[in-house]
Each structure stands twice: as C-alpha cells, then as structure tokens.
Write a structure and sequence with these properties.
Protein name: Trans-aconitate methyltransferase
Pfam family, one: Methyltransf_25
CATH superfamily: Vaccinia Virus protein VP39
Distance between the termini: 30 Å
CATH topology: Rossmann fold
Strand content: 15-25%
Strand order of the largest sheet: 3-2-1-4-5-10-6
Shape: globular
CATH architecture: 3-Layer(aba) Sandwich
Bound molecules: benzoic acid
Number of domains: 1
GO molecular function: methyltransferase activity
InterPro entries: Methyltransf_25 (IPR041698), SAM-dependent_MTases_sf (IPR029063)
Radius of gyration: 18 Å
Structural class: alpha/beta
Domain Methyltransferase: 37-124
Number of strands: 10
C-alpha cells in the first residue's frame, strides 16, 4: 500500500461521497440482526454504523490511525482497530466481510483475500466494491500528460492503484477458495465537492504519484492536470470524476 497521509477531518468534509455512494453496496451485503460483520477499510466509520443499524455486531479495521481515531469518536459503540488489511489475523469469526473503496489501495491481493477467507465462518460471504478496470483513467492520463509537458514524466508514478478486470478478480477469488457469485463492472461518474474538487481530489488521493518531486514540481503538475481536465470534467460549477466500480459478492462454501 502506498504511503498516504489521510487527513480524516478533511476527508469527512470533502470526500464523504466515498461513504455516501458506498451505501448502495450495502444492499448486496443485506446484513441481518445477530450477524457478526467485519468492515475492511472502514475509514471514519460511517458505513460500519449503517451496518450496525441492521442489528448486526460490527468491527471495523483501517490502516490509518487517524481514521480509526475519528471513527471511535464518531461511533463509540463500534469496535474499531488499526490493522493492515493484507495480513488480517482472524479465524472463522465473521458471517460477512464488507469493504468499500479500499481494495484498490492494496498491492498484496493474495494476502488480503486469504485473510478474509480465513476470517469468515463456513458459509460466510464477502461483499466489496472498489475501483475496476478503467477507473479514473482520464485523471491518470491528465497527470501523465501534465508531467510530460513539464518534462517530469520519468519521476511521476501513476500506476500504484489496483483496478482489475472482471475475469482477473473472479480468478483471484476462485483461486483463494471463494465461490464468485457476482462480479460486476460499471461506470459510476462521481461528483466532487466544490470548485476545487479536482484539485482536492488529486491532493488527497494521488499524492503518492508525486513522492519523487519537490513541492513546486508537484504543484505545477497538479495545476496543469486540473487545467487539462477542466473543459471535459467541470460542468455547471461541478467536477465529475470517471469512477468505474468493480462490485463483488463471493462466498465461502
Ligand atoms: C476510487 O474509489 O475509485 C478511488 C479513490 C481514490 C483513488 C483512486 C481510486
């Protein structure tokens, strides 16, 4: 996982669309009273709290200590813990594992899926949504294009997310032992908050792209990328990002 600094307060104010859109995937989870459910990559805890409303017992894990601290403040009745999702150490404890907008950050997908498989009880299910093949392609292209125009293309890293195809992920699930019941790939254009929505998005989510640049260089690439995107992605005072989701439901039979 790339080193990202998550500003949990800013995230809650400007990027809360992550959990707002995530509410849709909860329908696939269909949590029931009495179930024990793990939320992997729980962030500030909003979706874990929604799951809890069904009467299930929820635990949330996230790699960011800052996010976990805010989740605990927001929802004191839920158990939140800082953990690396690629090395989970649970043993047949959960009826379901849920995850929203997290898997694309994780390089070690085998470790992630093995840990989840082991965490599930026999008959348990995994429901997750994350970036799929083609996700944010126009934003990545704009960053690469801006870096090239500024002669910085060899120092910008633009391929650190994992956006798999349907067949790639179904194969990963099945080779871990899961039965892949549903694997869907679909466009979900996503509105960003405010006039600086794209700038804020790049600063929060793409900061790893610029680890080899100094501050001025990173700012120059970001500003140029935003300008490249403006004619196509900024309409009627609103920015839109070209999200494509991979939504999965898999079970441990
Ligand atoms: C996503 O949810 O698709 C996403 C978020 C931040 C960076 C990359 C992808």
């Amino acid at each position: 996982m790339p080193e990202i600094h998550w500003d949990s307060t800013l995230y809650n104010e400007q990027h809360r669309f992550v959990s707002d859109y995530g509410a849709d995937v909860l329908q696939w989870l269909d949590a029931k009273a009495g179930e024990n459910i793990l939320d992997v990559g729980c962030g500030t805890g909003d979706l874990a709290a929604k799951i809890q409303e069904s009467g299930a017992t929820v635990s949330g894990v996230d790699a960011s200590a800052d996010m976990i601290e805010l989740a605990k403040q927001n929802y004191p009745t839920i158990q939140f813990e800082q953990k690396d999702a690629a090395v989970l150490d649970y043993n047949r404890e959960f009826d379901a594992v849920f995850s929203n907008a997290t898997f694309h950050w994780i390089e070690n997908q085998r470790g992630l899926l093995r840990g989840i498989f082991k965490a599930l009880k026999h008959g348990g299910r995994l429901v997750a949504e994350f970036g799929g093949k083609g996700n944010i392609k126009t934003i990545v292209d704009a960053i690469e294009n801006a870096a090239k125009q500024l002669g910085l293309e060899h120092r910008v890293i633009s391929n650190f997310w994992f956006f798999p195809s349907i067949s790639h992920y179904a194969t990963l699930l099945e080779s871990t032992g899961f039965e892949a019941e549903q694997v869907w790939l679909f466009d979900r254009p996503t509105k960003l908050v405010g006039e600086d929505g794209m700038l804020n998005w790049i600063n929060q989510f793409a900061q790893h792209a610029f680890v080899n640049l100094n501050e001025e260089e990173a700012e120059a690439v970001t500003d140029l990328a935003v300008n490249i995107l403006k004619p196509t992605h900024f309409k009627n005072g609103e920015w839109t990002a070209d999200y494509r989701r991979l939504r999965i439901k898999a079970s441990k039979r």
